[in-house]
């Protein structure tokens, strides 16, 4: 039986690249005119599969929805929200996401449900609001200011306890991540940190007992300095709220807590949300898309996901067969696949066909930029209702497209928490991180070269955990594409390109 969605998704791909030596895609039908409102409505009104419906209908207090990229996890959460709101006149539903762009995207979709009892937040935005209600005011420290504070703490510990971890600059990023990890795992005493398993923290930096003591001293110094200045960083929010949990009483109207992309929230954040969830906690996650520094098991969070409490979605509805197969060939290098991790969800390759993804090797930075500009211009001319993502591991590399595309008649915007819309046709500029959870008819993955992805300068001796995170970022980026995927690079190409099955993409060279 053909499903509703299969009828609605004509493939419209015809890209005539600006270089004559490149063959154009074949030409299926044009997509019918739509606007962002229609697109949002379409997404909300989709007929669910039996598996998805089963997750929506499940009435237990806790549920985990695991699924591959594009399997409808967000859609199921929104349908679940809709169902609860219709059945329970007095209950609120809170939908949490990790990042601001996904929250903005989910807000646009949630607006279609049209209930003032459905609230969409990132953890940080909700936590900041709660603290303000409790009259707990503190200045949030971030960016350069946060770095300076941490550097001072490192220097001060170095004076009293000289150790390579605090004496050598190369460990600074590691220390910053470790401190974030300590907070995420609530390891607030030396004893708990000394005993903690550093799962997910990599093996590149050898940390023995003495090393841990030194790291903890930096952590304490940093926390002390923050406190003295009346400041906190974003990783502190959950712990501060947790300490004020008793006062939170009347503010907690979190009847139903729904969490999207839960694999990227920290353990302490998930635990706090669980404590706040009066009636129900539903988590959607895909550890194959984990792109932040978190490590926990569902048992650590205290949720019971045994038996019928876990629903698994294997089918991708977003991307074509060609794109999913390519993404899967990369994922086969992820330890989550290699170690047969129980969190891994095997994809069912979709039936929907599309063009073979392309890998374009360019002769220089300028050629790469020109290639993307001209290709995007042509693709948009042929498909004016499309959303075309230009994604790069480094956000800053995309600013020239924002300047150069509009004069070519192509609207281009950064999609951020407070600006841009992932539903409006045109070009969307995003980092791999902020593209998480979103989707585009066509995706250009720009600058797939070493030191961009993986981003590190000392890329030669990266440990497996860091590499896995970078690889998963690329997996996330690839799976944002519905129909067309074009990957470009110049110079030393990303090592992850060599992990892709070459039979699944078409290699071409320009400007060499
Ligand atoms: N049953 C379905 N029929 C048709 N389209 C569907 C169905 N389920 C999901 N989709 C579509 O598939 C796309 C992906 O859905 P969604 O964003 O909910 O997936 P996801 O699992 O949250 O993805 P990711 O983890 O990659 O962010 C959306 O365009 C959605 O409308």
TrEMBL record:
Coiled-coil region list: none
UniProt cross-references to InterPro entries, sorted A to Z: DExx_box_DNA_helicase_dom_sf (IPR013986), DNA_helicase_UvrD-like_C (IPR014017), DNA_helicase_UvrD/REP (IPR000212), P-loop_NTPase (IPR027417), UvrD-like_ATP-bd (IPR014016)
Transmembrane stretches, start-end: none
Reaction catalysis annotation: ATP + H2O = ADP + phosphate + H(+); Couples ATP hydrolysis with the unwinding of duplex DNA by translocating in the 3'-5' direction
Alphabetical GO biological process terms: recombinational repair
Binding of ATP, residues: 67-74
Recorded GO MF terms: 3'-5' DNA helicase activity; ATP binding; ATP hydrolysis activity; DNA binding
Keywords: ATP-binding, Helicase, Hydrolase, Isomerase, Nucleotide-binding
Pfam families: UvrD-helicase, UvrD_C
Alphabetical list of Gene3D superfamilies matching this protein: 1.10.10.160, P-loop containing nucleotide triphosphate hydrolases
Gene Ontology CC entries for this record: cytosol
Enzyme class: isomerase
Enzyme Commission number, as recorded: 5.6.2.4
Domain UvrD-like helicase ATP-binding as annotated: residue spans: 46-333
PANTHER family, sorted: DNA 3'-5' HELICASE, UVRD / RECB / PCRA DNA HELICASE FAMILY MEMBER
Sequence similarity: Belongs to the helicase family. UvrD subfamily.
Identification of the protein by name: DNA 3'-5' helicase
Record organism: Cohnella luojiensis
